[in-house]
Amino acid sequence: MYKTPGEAVEFARALIPALSPLDGVERVVCPPFIDIPGVAAVLAGSPIKVGAQNVHWEPQGAFTGSISIPMLKGLVEYVIIGHSEVRQYQHETDEMINKKAKALLANGLKPIIAVGESLAQNEAGETEAFVGGQVRAAFDGIAASDLPNVVVAYEPIWAIGTGRSATGEQANRIISRAVRAVLASLYGADNAEKVRIQYGGSVKPDNMKEFMSQPDIDGALVGGASLKVEDFTALTRLAAEAKKGSG
C-alpha cells in the first residue's frame, strides 16, 4: 500500500529507461488498484508488464470494495493471490485462492500464487507439510496445460518486512521439496518444471544474487526493495546476470 496515482506514474516513467536494457528476465510491477490505469498507460509498449495485488473470483456482484477480473482485463497480465497479508488481514482461505486461480486462468490472466509459513510453524518443523498443503489446495482442479501460465511465490511470513530472510540454500530446499516436488507429484516432473517459482521475503540488492543462483528459484517477489527505482533496477540486473550465468 504505497504510492498515490501521481507518484506511481512518475515511478513507472523512471523505470522504463532503467529496466528496458536488461535482457533475459521478465519485469512486472503490481501497483495498488487505483494506480493501475495510469501505470498501464505509461508502460504500454515497454517491456515492463503490469500486475494487480489481488482480485475477486466473481465477475461482478454485491462485493463492495472488491475488484473483478473483467475490471482488470486489458490493464494487467498478472495478479498476485494468496499473499500472506491477504490471508492474515482479509482472512482469505485456500479455497478462495483456488477459486481465484481458476477464474484468472479461465480469463487469460496469470496468477502469482503466494505460499509461506509462520515463524511458529517454521520453528516447529512444519514448513514442508504446511507449504505443500497450500500448494495442493491452490492447484486443485487446475489443468497441466495451464502450468506455464502460473507462478508460485514462496514467501516465509517471518521474513516479510522484518529484515530477516531465509538463506538461499534454505529457500531453495523448501521450494524444491514443498513446491516443486508437490507439483511433480500432481502433474509429473516435466510439467512441474514449467511453473516458475519465486522467493520473497526481505529480498534486497545485497542478497538477491544468493537467491537467484539457486537451481529451483526462478525469480523474486519483492516488497519494500521494489519501491525505489535504483533498488528495483539492481535486483533486476542481478537476476539477469545470475540466470544468464546459469544458462
CATH homolog superfamily of the largest domain:
Aldolase class I
Helical coverage, percent range: 40-55%
Structural class: alpha/beta
Count of distinct structural domains? 2
Strand order of the largest sheet: 1-2-3-4-5-6-7
* Termini Cα gap: 36 Å
The CATH class designation of the largest domain is: Alpha Beta
* Rg from alpha-carbon coordinates: 17 Å
Poorly predicted runs of 5 or more residues: none
Instruction: Count helical runs.
Output: 11
Mean of residue pLDDT? Answer: 95
Order of helices and strands: HEHEHEHHEHHEHHEHEH
Count of DSSP strands? 7
Structural key phrases:
247 residues; alpha/beta; TIM Barrel; 2 domains; seven-stranded parallel beta sheet; globular
Report on the architecture of this protein.
The protein has 247 residues and is of the alpha/beta class. It has two domains: 37 residues, no CATH class; 197 residues, TIM Barrel, CATH 3.20.20. It has eleven helices and seven strands. A seven-stranded parallel β-sheet has the order 1-2-3-4-5-6-7. Helix 7 packs across helix 8. It is globular and about 45 Å long. The mean pLDDT is 95.
